[in-house]
Amino acid sequence: MEKNCLNCNKVRKVVMIGCGFVGAACCFSIMQSGLFSEMVLIDADKAKAEGEALDISHGIPFAKPIKIYAGNYDDIKDASLIIISAGANQKTGETRLDLVKKNISIFKSIIPEIKKRNYKGILLIVANPVDILTTVTIKLSGLPENKVLGSGTVLDTARLKYELGNHLNVDSRSVHAFIIGEHGDSEIAAWSSANVSGIPLNKFCEMRGHFNHEQATKQIADSVKNSAYEIIEKKKATYYGVAMAVKRICEAIIRDEKSILPISSMMHGEYGIDGICLSMPAIVGKDGVETHVPIQLNKEETKKLQKSAKTLQDILEENNI
């Protein structure tokens, strides 16, 4: 075991549970990042995990050295990070919440296997509905809440920045804005706190010749919310964007960057929301979620956020979670 350890685990060992479109794409993205020296792929279909591990391994000569192999739950014990993408895929016409029953059932078989091995690292949930499954994982795993986080609206936020960058003809990395709430149909674009390099969004829009703010923000928010449905309709699945989002979260954890990312984590009274995981900006580092970051929301945004939380809470109650 490496001396430089994170929570007494191998800092540079990562496990992916679930090797479908999303899991495999995440592994490929993570392999290229150089963050890890060991990657274990676990899937109910062992041959699928073996095939993906072999295929991705053939790219190692073009990247950094890393050991990639198919394994089982006994391989998780000394990992610093486990990513769970296992679950049913979202099909054309389905919402993320439609996947609830199927994927809660799958998680009820996965999380006990992790708990049985006395795992002490960090769990990153990617499967949908991610906010529900992150809440379920906290309840089933027994891990401290800060060590269980979901990919949340990190991808949705990237989509928002992409759309705003195109609209304003500026580098999307200079856009600072968040999608918050559910990673799904009740998500909220937090326009109140949006800015471009510190300049309030509406003011910057006017600098670029855009004055119909209400129409433009509605069109952009709708485009972000519906983008997954559009991609699924055209190519049956989304996986490249989320793979980059997962890699970004891994960077924040492994490098202890203290990055502010809109991950899904447990709420305790913020904005009047309690006892459910929701996607909100938080400081992310080597111990997982350090703290939530309060952002400026107007009354309407706060109300929509509370409604989003209520939608998720109702789903949990329906499923006896």
Describe the protein's architecture and organization.
This protein is of the alpha/beta class and 321 residues long. It folds into two domains: 141 residues, NAD(P)-binding Rossmann-like Domain (Rossmann fold, 3-Layer(aba) Sandwich), CATH 3.40.50.720; 165 residues, L-2-Hydroxyisocaproate Dehydrogenase, Chain A, domain 2. A six-stranded parallel sheet has the order 3-2-1-4-5-6, with helices on both faces. Strands 7-10-11 form a three-stranded antiparallel sheet. The chain has a three-stranded antiparallel sheet with strand order 12-15-16. α3 links the parallel β4 and β5. α1 crosses α8 and α3 packs parallel to α4. The chain starts with 9 loop residues before the first strand and ends with a helix.
Low-confidence stretches: 1-8
**Shape summary:** globular
One letter per element, helices H and strands E, the order comes to EHEHEEHEHEHEEEEEHHHEEEEEH
- Sheet with the most strands? 6 strands, parallel
Helix run count = 9
CATH fold node name of the largest domain? L-2-Hydroxyisocaproate Dehydrogenase, Chain A, domain 2
Instruction: Label the structural class.
Output: alpha/beta
Task: Quote the distance from N terminus to C terminus.
Answer: 37 Å
Q: Would you tell me the overall average pLDDT?
A: 94
User: How many individual domains?
Assistant: 2
- Enumerate the strands of the largest sheet in spatial order, edge to edge or round the barrel: 3-2-1-4-5-6
In the CATH hierarchy, the architecture of the largest domain is Alpha-Beta Complex
- Under CATH at level 1, the class of the largest domain stands as Alpha Beta
Helix proportion: 40-55%
